[in-house]
Amino acid sequence: MSRVALVYKFGGLYSDMDVIALRPLVGATNFIALEYDESGNLNHAIHRMRRHHPMLLRVMKHVAANYNGKAWAANGPTAMSDVARLLGCDLKPVGLDRLVNATHNRTSQPIQPCNATNPCSNQTEECDWVALRSNAFMAVHYDVAYKLFLGPEKNETSPPIQTLYPDSLGLHFFNYMTRDKEVQSGSHMHRLASEFCPVVVKKHPLLT
């Protein structure tokens, strides 16, 4: 929950360390990245919020009241998704073309019943953010993220690096799922890291 607390206190962008930045994120509005567009499940591996955004405060209160130390992601993506649904926030995917200045106290749309203490009609400020389309950071599903580390097959032609993930701001490679994978020569991970993380590659060679 420290990531949520830090963004709440100072404002700005949070990104997990297993995300490779592909394009600059300039002038972006408040957003939380979607993991699945269809389900509306959020992934708080990448989110940007203004300082003291009430959505983040609600997430922290929710986790404090419902902490689950056994289930993976229960206190992260699941908690953030649950709070968004409880508040009735709009979880329709927003593309990169609408990322700048896309929120202006977006209207609360109840998905679950609200109660007397937290009426939906008073929740517009909590919902002043957009659900960013999953391909902005989650273009590769975690089930197949291991393929990012595999080198090309014999006689396989690799597309130019500039054409990989054209609709993405970054690529989340799900270290929890891929931490035991070796980076193979010519793999997407090798090529992306060489292009976008040259200092890291130079100081800590990915290939032995």
TrEMBL record:
<feature type="domain" description="Alpha 1,4-glycosyltransferase">
    <location>
        <begin position="114"/>
        <end position="202"/>
    </location>
</feature>
<dbReference type="GO" id="GO:0016020">
    <property type="term" value="C:membrane"/>
</dbReference>
<dbReference type="GO" id="GO:0016758">
    <property type="term" value="F:hexosyltransferase activity"/>
</dbReference>
<dbReference type="Pfam" id="PF04572">
    <property type="entry name" value="Gb3_synth"/>
</dbReference>
<feature type="domain" description="Alpha 1,4-glycosyltransferase">
    <location>
        <begin position="50"/>
        <end position="93"/>
    </location>
</feature>
<dbReference type="InterPro" id="IPR051981">
    <property type="entry name" value="Glycosyltransf_32"/>
</dbReference>
<protein>
    <submittedName>
        <fullName>Uncharacterized protein LOC108671134</fullName>
    </submittedName>
</protein>
<keyword id="KW-0808">Transferase</keyword>
<dbReference type="InterPro" id="IPR007652">
    <property type="entry name" value="A1-4-GlycosylTfrase_dom"/>
</dbReference>
<dbReference type="InterPro" id="IPR029044">
    <property type="entry name" value="Nucleotide-diphossugar_trans"/>
</dbReference>
<comment type="similarity">
    <text>Belongs to the glycosyltransferase 32 family.</text>
</comment>
<dbReference type="GO" id="GO:0006688">
    <property type="term" value="P:glycosphingolipid biosynthetic process"/>
</dbReference>
